[in-house]
Write a structure and sequence with these properties.
The protein is of the alpha/beta class. Helices cover 42% and strands 14% of the residues.
Length: 426
């Protein structure tokens, strides 16, 4: 199997780690992406994304990246599409998948395995991808080449569940395709590979997984708003509820939902259901609640400053953390950026700092971020922040208030130093 050539279409947060894994397992790997700068970095043995797994497994020369479709796609035995599938104004945008398939189609050969890993809604492979590939190649899916879907599963920054240790599901249009795809993923993944009965079922898996998380996060975010009114520490309630060994799974409130998956995927399920004549009221409400959290954070900041007797329009505030989760540089759908955009016109000075996202920071260090700062907003709980933002350190910087949007700091210690503290539902 690993004598085959694998082509990865789309070398972003999903495609590039997959390309590194294929190369690590001995496959000949080519990568196709339209971003010339990204391609150049990869060919120099440098990663275009900040990811510990990639940085540990990237070796110069192992992946041949190009912006030329013919060069990369013409000799592929296995082609995997990993392009973005955003939601624009809450509507699924499959334009990248369509464009990738049109590039791929003329080079599909007999016996080739084509897998879509991009997150898509049920019916995409059969209704959109298949016609494009068959028309462009002149071949028949399921007979001349094999086509299926394996929803990507990747958790950037997770050192325990790296890409090769996460179980996967897949389904192709034919039994032979299933066998070939399972053999391929078994050669990559040190975890269970589950073959489902239909491609539509496989397509639904990813959107269901992430919608499940979105709903539960919305639940605790709404609880946080409620418990703030009632004076109940939600973190203590979750701690207590988590002692039940069955029937409860802890989720935690925060400043909103970020990343390309949880903040986007529910819209794919909502829209596909709408096309089929069903309205997902519950899913839409969860999105509304989670989308409201950046505004709620700003409301809490205003309340803190009022307690500190600091006029909002004269306040100096520092937002710490711009990526959507710790230890990565990914700012897609990051609630921190939304919080910053809401605060900027309201305050005298807004400082932004993230050691992983310096290009969007307006200062170069934590010390500079805290200089003359009235209030900090911890929007992303990077390890370096948790290690540095100790109560005594905050006191030494004359910080007057802390809005801990991740409930990650020492509340009691901060308050003992005479600094105002507020968490989300805490």
């Amino acid at each position: 199997m690993n004598q085959n050539t694998v082509c990865i279409v789309g070398l972003g947060y999903v495609g590039f780690p997959l390309a590194c894994l294929c190369a690590k397992k001995g496959f000949k790997v080519s990568g196709f992406d339209l971003d010339a700068e990204k391609v150049d970095l990869i060919n120099k043995g440098k990663s275009p994304i900040k990811d510990s797994y990639v940085e540990e497994n990237l070796a110069a020369g192992k992946i041949k990246a190009t912006t030329d479709a013919k060069t990369s796609l013409n000799l592929a035995d296995i082609a995997i599409v990993c392009v973005p599938t955003p939601a624009i104004d809450s509507k699924p945008d499959l334009s990248f998948v369509k464009a990738a398939c049109k590039e791929l189609a003329p080079f599909v050969s007999k016996g080739e395995l084509v897998i879509i890993e991009s997150t898509i809604y049920p019916g995409t492979v059969e209704e959109i991808v298949l016609p494009i590939l068959e028309k462009g190649s002149g071949l028949k899916a399921g007979k001349d080449f094999f086509l299926g879907h394996c929803p990507e599963r990747i958790d950037p920054g997770n050192k325990k569940f790296t890409i090769e240790k996460i179980p996967r599901v897949l389904a192709c249009l034919s039994a032979k395709g299933n066998a070939k795809a399972k053999k391929f993923y078994n050669s990559l993944i040190d975890a269970e590979i589950t073959v489902l009965a239909s491609v539509k079922s496989a397509e639904a898996v990813k959107v269901v997984e992430n919608t499940f998380r979105d709903i539960n996060i919305a639940y605790v975010n709404e609880l946080a708003k409620s418990f703030d009114k009632m004076g109940i520490d939600l973190s203590e309630v979750i701690k207590g509820a988590s002692t039940k060994p069955f029937g409860f799974m802890p989720f935690y409130p925060g400043p909103g939902v970020g990343g390309h998956c949880i903040a986007q995927d529910p819209y794919y399920l909502i829209e596909r259901a709408r096309q089929s004549g069903f309205k997902h009221s519950f899913l839409a409400l969860a999105r509304e609640i989670n989308n409201s959290m950046p505004s709620y954070v700003v409301l809490l900041v205003e309340g803190l400053l009022q307690k500190a007797k600091i006029d909002l329009k004269n306040a100096k505030i520092s937002v710490l953390g711009l990526s959507y989760k710790p230890e990565i540089d990914d700012v897609r759908e990051s609630p921190a950026l939304k919080i910053a955009s809401l605060l900027k016109p309201k305050v005298a000075k807004l400082t932004l700092f993230d050691p992983f996202v310096l290009e969007k920071s307006n200062v170069s260090s934590l010390d500079l971020a805290l200089k003359d700062c009235d209030c900090i907003v911890l929007a992303t709980n990077h390890r370096v922040f948790l290690e540095k933002l100790l109560p005594s350190f905050l006191k030494s910087k004359s910080v007057k208030a802390v809005l801990d949007a991740r409930n990650a700091l020492d509340k009691q210690g901060i308050e003992r130093e005479g600094i105002l503290y507020k968490g989300i539902g805490r």
